[in-house]
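Below is how a single chain appears once it has passed through the pipeline. First comes the sequence as given, then the structure the pipeline wrote out for it. We keep one example in the README because the format questions we get most often are answered faster by looking than by reading.
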Amino acid sequence: QVQLRESGPGLVSASETLSLTCTVSGGSITTNYYYFNWIRQPPGKGLEWMGAINYSGTTYYNSSLKSRTSISRDISKNHLTLHLTSVTPEDTAVYYCKIFTPWGDAWGQGTQVTVSS
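Resulting structure:
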């Protein structure tokens, strides 16, 4: 069973770049039909899909965040990375990594990120 674990700085200053890692265990990130998504939830708000990268390395982005978002992967480390540039306090949220597969989905536990002004 694939398991996901997000990691990164809990506190970031405004205007900086936020970088988060999703470490994958129990399966290779290059396995056919695996789609890895970054999703966030600001305090008191709903879930927001930020983007995804699939098993072949193709990326997809939320159009509203595309100019600031980059998703990449390191096959040797079996992990994914999210970069979000020029952060503001509105980017404060719990950030999740989620896998979609034809056989089921799984979430990481999430990581809290606070952006200080």
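The chain has no helices and eleven strands.

See the next section for the split statistics.
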